[in-house]
Design brief:
The structure holds 3 protein chains of 3 kinds. Chain A contains 14 helices and 2 strands, in the order H-H-H-H-H-E-H-H-H-H-E-H-H-H-H-H. By secondary structure, chain A is mainly α. Chain B is 34% helix and 24% strand. In chain B, the strands form 2 sheets. Chain B has a 6-stranded mixed β-sheet with strand order 6-7-8-3-9-10, with helices on both faces. In chain B, a hairpin with a 2-residue loop joins strand 1 and strand 2. The N terminus of chain B is likely disordered. Chain C is mainly α. Chain C has one domain. Chain C is built from 11 helices and 2 strands. In chain C, a hairpin with a 2-residue loop joins strand 1 and strand 2. In chain C, helix 1 runs antiparallel to helix 10 and helix 3 packs antiparallel against helix 4. Chain C is globular, with a radius of gyration of 19 Å. The relative contact order of chain C is 0.21. Classes of the chains: A mainly alpha, B alpha/beta, C mainly alpha. Chains in contact: A-B, A-C. At the A-B interface, helix 7 of A face helix 2, helix 3 and helix 4 of B.
């Protein structure tokens, strides 16, 4: 087996260059700081709420994409995982008095375990069984919570938010910054996974799982890693939710909005890369925020449903894929 | 890596009593096959005789089967295909199974990334592409390759595992005479470097030219095992192939 | 008789009756998922849509809900063929069934459910046929007619469907298309046309199930959600493409779910479905009557 230096000069598409991490983190930090300062300047509390709303979807969509876009395994129970995060935060607060940040860690742990468990039970089988199981799981979790008096059942639970959190000007600003950091971390994790050998393995699994297994890719292990990560991050997206409104009930936690957006945003933005879910979340999130003032929330969601169907049919690679295809 | 010398000859692959049934249908029964390191074994038989079933039992695609399979003394029972790949067992598929959205180079990088390879995955992948003479198409997508090139890609991925044993499952099906020669030359090169090869084929000329030994399956059983000349002269084998090329 | 025993017996009987409803609901999926390998998670949502249509039309015309369901079934058949045509054109042809195709059906389920909320509001709707409040008593056993009639309907519908699948050319083609589309093509039968027909039938079956649902209980837009777990669990346990298996699994499931509800409370039904699904997948994914993959 000879090596030829000349043969190493390959066309750009195949060049598996080492991804440079520093530019991403620097860029993300700069962007985040810029966003924060801009909102500070505007000084309107609503800006923080709108920003939180969109950033939570960035986290949710990026999380979903790690298993859905990279590996091709569809998680229909995003609402269940999100609610798991939210309710874990509530339980932690009620049981120990620990606040938002420990709540986020706890949410990651619990939701991650849930993802691992569901995956362990179903990922040995065809992908559709995993998907069906996640769909049922969401319904079961909803039933569980509704019947659980400790967290208020269907009446819901209240959380008293502190009036202010120095050095932030308001609690809303604090939540926004927390979600901003979570979003940057999540997207960073998604990007790191994509460029790592785990990401390559997941891609191989998505393209041809049997062949991946035959060439040495530990398919089950990678799928379980992705399912755990996906679950944990979706839980993280939900953890600040009770603090956002000071109140949480099952209908809000298990909202259909999370169920459909977790899937629509990555697919419309472009599944398979870390950037697609961000694009989908920002675009769709902004659209929905803008629309809430003019149309009913049901109609809003209905439109998202249609957008999902239309995009998936006409632009299966999403917005990002559409642009790449025109090169 | 080749065996030799007096006394017990080293055995690379030992399949004993391998059998597989699907519901009431017996696809394979009581099959014993041994392979020495570096040996070239041809596996032939009519369609439905159990050749692919046998391959799938050895590769681990069928987790449950009768009998045992050992590779270089290590029992493979219960090991998933990817573990067997790491132990040096490579197989190609009847229909090429590339990773469709990855480039040719990336296709070969995947096995390298998950192997014990210490150096640059790209460099090693390019080496493997060199061996199959696909280096020039490193940036292309699998669907842009011709059929024979796709089969070479399959072999490149197998090479990336640095295999002790390569099972080539109808690697030449549907190819032209010249293309068959291409693949044959490639397999000979791999064998010369120390890889044992089990070739499953219907193309008689290829399998007889290539193999040191020929094994024949008929209706799920092994009916012959020996040098090609002798095996092909057997009346059972002739009748099994009556009407075939 | 001991009161717990009576409770158990009644639980078993009404579970069997409920199984009739589940049998019709799952039989459509046995065709689309079991035979055609199309993961139509929108099936329960379409069933609920039919239920709402049955309530609306039945109230307006003053007709029995089951009758209305049967009358509406052809419309749903057409809808089913349309959905399949889109699915085939955009996803099957491209090989995108796994991710995009699945998302497509999720989108449809979503559109139907939210559409129902927008059109009818979230409240429960009902349409009671005249026999809805009649209950036959056999000793200690109650047999409410509102549950017996759907069971009888299930027997008729699934029975005739089974007969048709096994004896008619088109029926046999449907059974064959999943296994060997190529062979069908060689017989000058278009596999796509056969699948379109079969999928249309599966949705029509869902429509009839919607009518049965109305008879059994009031419906609301989210009623479909709990049925997803049920029908998939039943379909998988019944061995995917096997209709008799599906019926047997449905009856068994109905009993288990109902007995659990009698003793532990009805709100735990989703958990029963989920647990059942996981159990089947873990122990015997090919179902009671299916063959090994």
């Amino acid at each position: 087996m000879s090596t030829t230096a000349a043969a190493l000069a390959v066309p750009p598409r195949s060049a598996a260059a080492r991804p440079r991490h520093l530019p991403f983190w620097l860029g993300a930090a700069v962007l985040g700081a810029g966003l924060f300062l801009a909102l500070r300047l505007v000084g309107n509390e609503y800006g923080y709420y709108a920003g939180y709303f969109i950033l939570q979807y960035v986290v949710l969509a990026s999380a979903w994409n790690i298993l859905g876009g990279y590996a091709g395994y569809v998680n229909f129970g995003a609402a269940g995982f999100m609610a798991t995060g939210a309710y874990t935060a509530i339980v932690l607060r009620k049981a120990t008095g620990l606040d938002l940040l420990p709540g986020i860690l706890a949410a990651a742990a619990v939701a991650g375990l849930l993802g691992l468990g569901t995956g362990y039970l179903t990922l040995r089988l065809r992908g559709v069984y995993f998907s069906i199981a996640t769909l049922c799981l969401a319904v079961v979790l909803h039933t569980l919570v509704v019947n659980w008096d400790y967290v208020g059942g269907s009446r819901g639970a209240y959380i008293v938010r502190p009036r202010e959190v120095p050095p932030f000007t308001s609690y809303g600003e604090y939540l926004f910054v927390v979600m901003l950091v979570l979003a940057i971390l999540t997207v960073g994790i998604a990007r790191a996974v994509q460029h790592s050998r785990i990401g390559r393995g997941l891609q191989a699994i998505r393209d041809n799982e049997r062949a991946a297994e035959a060439v040495g890719v530990p398919t089950l292990r990678l799928k379980l890693v992705a399912a755990t990560l996906c679950g944990a991050l979706m839980g993280v997206a939900g953890a600040p939710l009770p603090y956002y409104s000071g109140y949480l009930n099952p209908d809000a936690a298990f909202s259909l909005s999370y169920a459909v957006n977790a899937i629509a945003m990555p697919l419309i933005g472009g599944a398979g890369t870390w950037a697609g879910p961000v694009i989908g979340a920002v675009l769709l999130g902004a659209l929905q925020q803008a629309a809430t003032v003019t149309i009913s929330s049901a109609l809003n969601l209905w439109i998202v449903g249609w957008m999902l169907v239309v995009f998936v049919a006409l632009a299966p690679r999403g917005i990002l894929g559409w642009f790449q295809g025109r090169r | 890596m080749s065996g030799g010398g007096t006394g017990a000859e080293p055995v690379l692959l030992r399949a004993e009593g391998v059998g597989k049934r699907f519901g009431g249908f017996v696809a394979l029964q009581g099959v014993d096959v041994t392979l020495r390191p570096g040996e070239r074994l041809g596996l032939i038989g009519p369609n439905g005789s159990g050749k692919s079933t046998f391959v799938n039992c050895v590769s681990g695609d069928f987790a449950q089967h009768d009998g045992t399979v050992t590779l270089a003394g290590q029992a493979l029972d219960g090991l998933k295909p990817h573990r067997r790949a790491r132990l040096g067992l490579a197989r190609t598929f009847q229909l090429p199974q590339p990773f469709g959205s990855l480039s040719v180079l990336e296709n070969v990088r995947v096995p390298v990334l998950f192997s014990a390879n210490a150096g640059s995955a790209t460099a090693r992948a390019m080496e493997c592409l060199e061996v199959v003479e696909l280096a020039g198409k490193a940036g292309k997508l699998p669907r842009e390759l011709t059929q024979v090139e796709q089969r070479r890609l399959e072999l490149a991925r197998a090479v990336a595992l640095d295999p002790r044993l390569l099972i080539a499952d109808e690697a030449m099906a549907g190819l032209s005479h010249a293309e068959v020669d291409q693949i044959l030359a490639l397999l000979r090169r791999l064998n010369a470097a120390g890889t044992a090869v089990i070739m499953i084929e219907h193309i008689m000329r290829a399998v007889t030219e290539f193999s040191e030994r020929l094994v024949v399956f008929v209706a799920g059983r092994k009916v012959a095992d020996g040098p090609p000349r002798d095996v092909l002269a057997m009346p059972e084998v002739e009748s099994a192939y009556l009407g075939k090329q | 008789m001991h009161p717990d025993l009576v409770l158990l017996l009644n639980g078993v009987v009404s579970g069997l009756l409920l199984g009739g409803l589940y049998a019709i609901a799952a039989s459509g999926l046995a065709i689309s998922f079991g035979m055609l390998d199309i993961v139509n998670i929108a099936h329960p949502a379409l069933m609920v849509a039919s239920a709402f249509a049955v309530v609306a039309v039945g109230t307006w015309l003053g007709l029995d809900p089951l009758l209305v369901a049967v009358l509406l079934a052809p419309l749903f058949y057409v809808l089913g063929t349309g959905i399949y045509a889109a699915y085939h054109h955009f996803f099957e042809r491209r090989g995108d069934e796994a991710l995009q195709g699945l998302a497509f059906f999720f989108g449809i389920m979503f559109i139907v459910e939210v559409g129902l909320v927008m059109a009818f509001g979230p409240e429960q709707r009902f349409l009671d046929p005249p026999y809805a409040f009649v209950t036959w008593r056999l000793g200690e056993i109650d047999v409410p007619l509102r549950m017996l009639v759907p069971l009888l309907l299930a027997a008729v519908v699934v029975g005739s469907l089974l007969l048709w699948l096994r004896s008619s050319f088109t029926g046999l083609a449907i059974a064959a298309v999943a296994q060997d589309a190529e062979a069908l093509r060689l017989m000058a039968v278009d596999p796509v046309r056969v699948k379109r027909l079969a999928f249309g039938i599966s949705v029509a079956l869902g429509a009839v199930a919607g009518g049965a649902l109305v008879v059994v209980q009031p419906v609301e837009p989210t009623s479909g959600q709990i049925f997803i777990g049920r029908v998939f669990a039943i379909c998988i346990m019944g061995g995917m493409g096997s209709l008799p298996g599906c019926v047997a699994a449905a009856l068994l499931f109905g009993v288990v779910e109902n007995v659990t509800a009698s003793f532990a409370g009805p709100s735990w039904s989703p958990a029963v479905a989920f647990g059942w699904l996981l159990l089947v997948l873990a122990v015997r994914p090919q179902g009671l009557f299916g063959r090994t993959a």
